[in-house]
Amino acid sequence: MALCSLSLRCPQPSRMVRTTGATPTSRPEPLPLLWSTYPPRSSVLKDFCRFNLTLHGAPGSSFQRSPHRHRFMTEPPDTDRVEILSERELGRTLARLATQVLETVDDSRTLMLLGIPTRGVQLSKVLARELERLSGHAIAQGAIDPTFHRDDLERIGTRLPQITTLPNSVEGRQVVLVDDVIFTGRTVRAALEALQSWGRAQRVMLLAMVDRGHRELPIQPDFCGRVVPTRRSETIELRLRDVDGEEGVFLRRITRPS
Ligand SMILES: O=P(O)(O)OC[C@H]1O[C@H](OP(=O)(O)OP(=O)(O)O)[C@H](O)[C@@H]1O
Ligand SMILES: O=c1cc[nH]c(=O)[nH]1
């Protein structure tokens, strides 16, 4: 009996692959010592032998996790988090973005920051504090929920609408839509439509902490923290101290063995 057929009889065959001398050939290799010395007649003995082969491998060979195990098992894929902006870098980026916003608007008292739920709302609160520090006066801040205006609910799944909070009328305001990530651009398109239903702002701008590419619409941020080229399978996470207990921007990779 060839060794490859032994490994097929292991209790969790999909987890195991033999790395040395396991290729089935026309001339099967000799049985491993453990197996040939104690031919398994009873099922108990068979199980004992399988167990030992599973744990330690046959003598002179080694086993590793099968690269194909994800096809057979329900365990989540391995994930990997890479830091894009540290806490200090994020702080500097926020200060830069706030300065750029103040440089762009004619009158900072007409500013209104509207965050897009959920992370964009938290980010807009942090930015509003920074803008208040720099400008020396209060900054109107709220939230605009785009859920009812989305054209991609099939893609992203059913969403619970979040609250829209407008601190004042949007008429005559210089509105900055704030989001943590811009990806396809569909969230921003829907947010623009939602905003339009509340009135006619004098000007609408977009601030995104991370532009990760893959746009499906001609929408670009006016203010951007960092452009991060990504794969579609990756995600970007903005972490804020107030809500997450840590601060920074991270790229989360889903690594699947090929
Ligand atoms: O450009 P898009 O392809 O529309 O993607 C970007 C949007 O996706 C994320 O929000 P998400 O809907 O995942 O909710 P979250 O803010 O709660 O993470 C992110 O905060 C943006 O709003
Ligand atoms: O990378 C992404 C894409 C959409 N939403 C996120 O929060 N991150």
From TrEMBL:
Cited function: Also displays a weak uracil phosphoribosyltransferase activity which is not physiologically significant. Regulates the transcription of the pyrimidine nucleotide (pyr) operon in response to exogenous pyrimidines.
Motif PRPP-binding per UniProt: ranges: 175-187
Keywords recorded for this protein, A-Z: Glycosyltransferase, Transcription, Transcription regulation, Transferase
EC number: 2.4.2.9
Catalytic activity line of the entry: UMP + diphosphate = 5-phospho-alpha-D-ribose 1-diphosphate + uracil
Superkingdom to which the source organism belongs: Bacteria
Higher taxonomy: Bacteria, Bacillati, Cyanobacteriota, Cyanophyceae, Synechococcales
Transmembrane keyword on record: no
Domain named Phosphoribosyltransferase: residues: 83-220
Enzyme class: transferase
GO biological process: regulation of DNA-templated transcription
Family per similarity comment: Belongs to the purine/pyrimidine phosphoribosyltransferase family. PyrR subfamily.
Molecular function GO labels: uracil phosphoribosyltransferase activity
One Pfam family here: Pribosyltran
HAMAP family listed in its UniProt record: PyrR
Protein name as it appears in the record: Bifunctional protein PyrR
InterPro entries hit by this protein: PRTase-like, PRTase_dom, PyrR, PyrR_bifunctional
Database matches in SUPFAM superfamilies: PRTase-like
